[in-house]
Amino acid sequence: MKSIFVVAHHTRGEIAQLLTDLEAWCTKHGHYLWMLPADANARGCEHLASEGAAMDADVVLSLGGDGTVLRAVHLLDGAPVPILGVNVGTLGYLTEIEPSECINALQRWVEGREDKDFIIDKRMMLTVLLKRADGGTDLSWRALNEAVLEKQQSGHTVWLDVVINSELFATYSADGLIVSTPTGSTAYSMSARGPVVSPRHRALLVTPVSPHMLFDRALVLDPHESLLIEVVGTRPVDMALDGRKVMSLTQGDVVSCAPDTCTAEFLRFKTPKFHQIVRTKFGLGDD
User: Is 66 a catalytic residue?
Assistant: First the structure.
């Protein structure tokens, strides 16, 4: 018996039939299927609700787009459980299959062997540590795509010191600063004109958002280089991880970013071809 934890988008209509098919398949083959109560209630599947932790599953099934995948990653919090992303979204960089392929893919995973019938694609994550200027308790988080320090007040820039390997690199005057992983290079960082980096790399990308300074380029750092960002202006700063605001920062607060010891794991049935995915998602082959 396999335990399958489902994370589902709350409103996409196509998911209703997919959940019905999944439940029938699991019942027939003796697998255990469950969802968090919030997801189950939103989808009208209250009988599938359970408070069981995502990390207790054999696989996490993400039904939605990349936002749903990111939610699954955060629920796992570094646990080595593979995620199978089913694209019921738009771009779907992180998803693997279409809804019509879901049951067959699960069957292949149940019956197959790793590196022969499927592979586990491991992606670097960030560990983000906050030290408060007021001496409060240190806080830490994980992120798959990026950490963003961004202005709160419209029409005003923020001031951020970037310290690399214990030496000041620059004081940024900008709308914000993005620290992303290679996986996150096709997310917010790309919209801020950051580089597109293959997820096979391990690196830290530092990309300013609308910088008000002569130096406006993104940096690509070795993963072993230390990176600290200090709020040096008096204007408040919001910090968001993978698109979710987690904290408001004030002058003197320091954020450090580094590769996490854990990785996000994705269930794949063919070797990912990152550059072809970019080509397809952006219509680069269209006439």
Answer: yes
